[in-house]
Amino acid sequence: MNSKPKIPFSPITINWTLTFRCNFLCRHCYSRPEKAEELETGQVKEIMRKVAEYKVPFINFGGGEPLLRKDLFELTSYATGLGYNVSMNTNGFLMDADAARKAKESGFKTVGISIDSTDPETHDTFRNVKGSHKRATDAAKYLRDEGVRLTISSVICRINHHEFDALVQQAKDLGAEQISLHNFKCTGLGMTNKDELDLDPKEWLDFYMKAIELRSKETGIRISLDDPITASIHKSPEKAIVKGSTCGKLSLNIRANGDVTPCGFIPVVIGNLLKDDLKDLWDNSDVLGKMRNKEPKEKCKTCKHYEECLGGCTARAYAMTGDFNSPDPHCWVKKG
Amino acid sequence: MHKIFRNPDVVWREEEEAREEVINAMGRGEDAGSEGTVLLIVSGTMHQLNILGGEIWKLIDGSRTEEAVVGELLLMFDVDRETLAGDVHAFLDDLKSRGWISYEQ
Questions:
Q1: Per-residue pLDDT, A3
Q2: Domain boundaries, chain B
Q3: Closest by CA position to B33, among listed A1, A239, A8
């Protein structure tokens, strides 16, 4: 009783950058150059109430570092009370035993900790904070002790693409239910440090071939590889709800001041939820319309995988060319 | 017969606009049986249920047995009881094998 893909009537997930402030200076970070006024507690709650009218089931807090918001747990309790399933991504530095207990009590369904290497020194250098690997692994233990579901997030790039299997093992050892191997994006500092950190298309192909094989065998942890360009080498056993990038089709991003963008890596503002209606933006935004109705360009025009990948990651294409329709710069498929 | 419960870890949402479209299409005699009307999100993976699967999913809230679900669906769908009961049973078997539902002990 499965069915044909269609855009849901409202987002499934809101990725919410509560603050651009951060205690880290990671070399790949999309948001370090960003600055914005932060919504007050009451304004965040007001937006939560408005968005809840459209039955959005998931909110994922990010940043910046969400634990720098002193009202984080109050906001989470409020969101949980409205029926949301709340998660967050954190660097873990401030997640001590007390914070882990509050995370549990406030209703976090899952918490994601960013760890980019099994080697503490490599992680600390990448994140620019000494001791950050230790604090991140301690955070994972505190959360596990409280019974909070744990996800480990690793941004695959030059420093770790050869050790992703060790990253998976590390996540298992920490008690994580899932490891998300995020693809590197050239936004913010990711663009500044692109030449140093990004892989070339052949290296991305090698990584995904091996990671997909490991995922097919691994039973102790879920391995998430959320990248539409894998459509050319792997067909999921489950029919995808939407094809190509999910941004603007299943999810939206809210910035610290309430501005809405299709995703955190596409800095194109389509409205602000203090004054705009979520459903109106979702149904009528020209930007979202363009992302949902991409036209193949250049090598995508003759590519037999286009109907499945729809040009790959729209954010990467936009970052490199300013055009949603350009081929994903990570794509390894040669012109057909 | 045992009452059927949805697994609370399965997050789900009815796609109200899609359901209305499907019902209107069925009213016009069109085949809309493959359109999704309920979304399930399980461990980060999304699944869609068509109109029959979606209506079954909504009914299995812990208050009904399989027989009662069939009885409710017969009021909605123009189909004979035997065929419907077979479809419902197969669907529930699939949900149970995935761990998405349980039966009252």
A1: 46
A2: 3-96
A3: A1
Name the residue among A3, A9, A12 with its Cβ closest to that of B17.
Answer: A9
DSSP output for A60-79: EEESS-GGGSTTHHHHHHHH
Look up residue A31 and give its two tokens.
């948001």
Across A282-293, b (16+ Cβ under 10 Å) vs e yields: beebebbebbbe
Q: B13-32: per-residue pLDDT in tens?
A: 999 999 999 999 988 988 88
**Secondary structure tally for chain A: helices H, strands E:** 13, 10
Determine the Cα–Cα distance for residues A111 and A317; give it in Å rounded to an integer.
29
B47/A238 CB distance under 8 A: yes
- What pLDDT score does A42 carry? 98
Could you tell me which CATH number the domain at B3-96 has? 3.90.930
ipTM of this predicted structure = 0.91
Among B15, B41, B49, select the one facing A1 at the smallest CB separation.
B49
Residues of chain A with pLDDT under 70: 1-5, 237-238, 336
List the 28-87 stretch of B: residues with Cβ below 8 A of A. Answer: 34-37, 39, 41, 43-50, 52-53
